Amino acid sequence: MTKFKGTSQLYKANSTPEPSATGGEDLMEEYIKKHIDEEGEYLHALWRDTQLRLSYGQMASGHIQGRLLKMLVRMIRPQRVLELGTFSGYSALSMAEGMEPGSELHTFEIFDEQEDFLRPWFENSAFSDRIHLHIGDALQLVPQMDVEWDLAFIDADKREYVAYYEMVLPRLKPGGYIIADNTLWYGRVIETNTRESDKQTLGIKEFNDLVANDDRVEKVIVPVRDGLTLIRKKDGNNKTE
User: In the chain, N or C terminus with fewer CB closer than 10 Å?
Assistant: First the structure.
């Protein structure tokens, strides 16, 4: 949920020269957009409405990440998808576009003021039958659902990433996937002296360390935008601890 970042910005610690800073990144972003599938008129309209009506509109997934999420869903072919953190609905609609008829996506948004913005965009979309919006705290609501998930997309409160992970993993099918967004967090994850008050950075770093050392899963970090971690629960692994 952050603006596209080139690898030169993500890896400043390597002292790699940056090609014209933001100008170079903007050119690279435009190049990528021209060489991937279009986002479509509906998602483009949602993106514009997000920038006009919501604070921090840049948090929406956007064209590049949206097409990646759709592609990953096409590859995984999940029947039940869980999303933690709806924001403007761009990522939910992108994933729903890649889902098969009869599949379901349950998306959770903790801020109830988002509901008036979200519901019309979901209800008027071509995938309204696949998307179920829940308003409230996912940490309280998801455990009440008797659902085994094929795929979970985590993009909510960074301070709670560890709690989300430990909640989702036991409820994920063996061979299922978790996609976690913002796991490079503006490059702050490589800082050695993170301030104690910077709870979001500390939350992401704790999450990354936990996943890296968790033998229940396979994992890889993809340095697109602000970092996506792809996590696969190993087959036959139904541990809850």
Answer: C
With beta carbons less than 8 A apart as the criterion, state whether 67 and 94 touch.
Answer: yes
Which superfamily does 7-233 belong to? Vaccinia Virus protein VP39 (3.40.50.150)
Question: CB of 153 within 8 A of CB of 81?
Answer: yes
Given this model, what pLDDT does residue 225 score?
A: 82
Q: Say how many Å lie between the first and final Cα of the chain, rounded.
A: 30
* Global pTM value: 0.86
Domain boundaries, the chain: 7-233
What is the reported pLDDT for 23?
67
Q: How far is it, in rounded angstroms, from Cα 25 to Cα 68?
A: 18
Strand, coil or helix: what is 83? strand
Dist CA 111 CA 241 (whole Å): 30
Closest CA relative to residue 95, chosen from 208, 183, 181: 181
Kind of pairing between the strands at 80-84 and 172-181: unpaired
